[in-house]
Amino acid sequence: MLSKLIKEKEFKNLGKKGIPYAVEKQKLVERANWRVFKPVIDYEKCIKCGLCWLHCPDAAYSVDKKGFPVCDGKVCKGCLLCVEICPVKCITVKKERG
Amino acid sequence: MIDIIDGNKCAAWGARRAKVQCVPCFPITPTTEIIETIAEWNAKGEFKGEFVVLESEHSAASACLGSSMTGARTFTATSSQGLLLMHEILPIISGCRTPMVMTTVSRCISAPIGLWPDHNDTLAMRDAGWIMFICETNQEVLDSVIMGYKVSENPKILLPVIVNMDGFVHSYTRTEVDIPEQKLVDKFLPHPELEIRLDVKKPMTLGIPAMGLDYMRYRQQLHTAMLDSFTVIDKVHKEWAKLTGRKYDFLDEYKVKDADAVIVMIGANATIARAAVDTMREKGKKVGLLRIRLFRPFPEAQLRKALEKVNKIAVVDQNICPGMGGILYPEIKMALYGTKKIISDYVQGLGGNFVSEEDYIEILNDIMKTKADDRKWQM
After folding, report:
1. Which one of A13, A23, A27 has the shortest CB-CB distance to B156?
2. What is the CATH number of domain B251-377?
3. Do B225 and A22 count as a contact with CB atoms less than 8 A apart?
4. Yes or no: is domain B2-244 CATH 3.40.50.970?
5. Measured between CA atoms, how close is B221 to chain A, in angstroms?
6. Using one digit for the tens of pLDDT, what is the confidence trace for B361-370?
7. What tens digit of pLDDT does each residue of A6-39 get?
8. List of chain A residues whose C-beta atoms are within 8 Å of the C-beta of residue B156
């Protein structure tokens, strides 16, 4: 990256833009490049209990119209908490890199 | 309403008059009376806010963060080790740009264990991104708590405020204090309407992760808000002076204009130094006192202007950064860099060691004789 020197005097107060907040999920940091392992759901075994959706620390899971959990590949950082929490062990681990 | 109350009561009255909605706290000497007083009012029904006692200062600060994130006016108080335990949360509160006021009652830090005041605890919070007022009198503590909310909740600033007083010297010493009427404070300080806050009806994440350049931009915004707060604080000072007649400024100048030698210091001992200045003036010696009231953001330009014609400056530090010296000293030197003034450091009163008028006279006599910058301890 080419460095840029900015004078402190030229800084502007951007008001509420200086507050680190996010309203929409899309604005969350994409963590896909942090991931080594990815959770893959076997929908034939899934009992729609929703525990993976509830426990995901990054809210990567959403629930589709039929009630099945769907993992957002952009948000999931691959912590695999869902794999541990699943009562019927329908979530398997797929290695993506490394 | 004129009353004779101590510094702790002043802070509690400040919170009560500001109609604080949530007080998460954990008591510690010499702050305990603030919390006791609010607890008593709460039990009697005179104080209508939420009063929460937690299991540690770390939890109390975390609860402050949560409560101020929802837009509730929040107050807490702590000292010494308690403040150090809170330290982890303080940059989060300022980083999330949530307004609140905390009274810190200065007490020396362990070990060895001491109960008496010096400024090492509060000055350790220098870089936490909080606006810091360091007070000299009980009245100033009360006024600063109320003014603190006005500065803190300004939509362009949104930064938390520390109002510091000295343990025992303020906190358990009764003086005559004018407690402003509720109507006056209500007029001065309307309830805050924060645009960005946690609300179940409008879910959002506050304190999101920000990597790389994004992080730097948030820090830049925090710094800019800090610098912008000068004008806001000035306005608030003027507004308060109009309502109550009590004038405050970033710096408290006492006989500085025609002085040859000036003491620069912070905290309650300034009252004793003031007496020393008067005694020296009676003997015809041109000396003065400059007390820094607003420590963060640091009023560098104002300090430069105030000390423009003064040649000899004695920085009195009631604190010590081991391996470097007094904490105030490098800041004053930085502000006066390139001016060819003689600036010496005097470390004194650590752990509340008693300092008398004669001690300040000794410092003033010493600085008038000194021909080069020096660092000394007054034992």
Report:
1. A13
2. 3.40.50.920
3. no
4. yes
5. 5
6. 999 999 999 9
7. 888 888 888 888 898 887 654 456 777 888 999 9
8. 13, 15
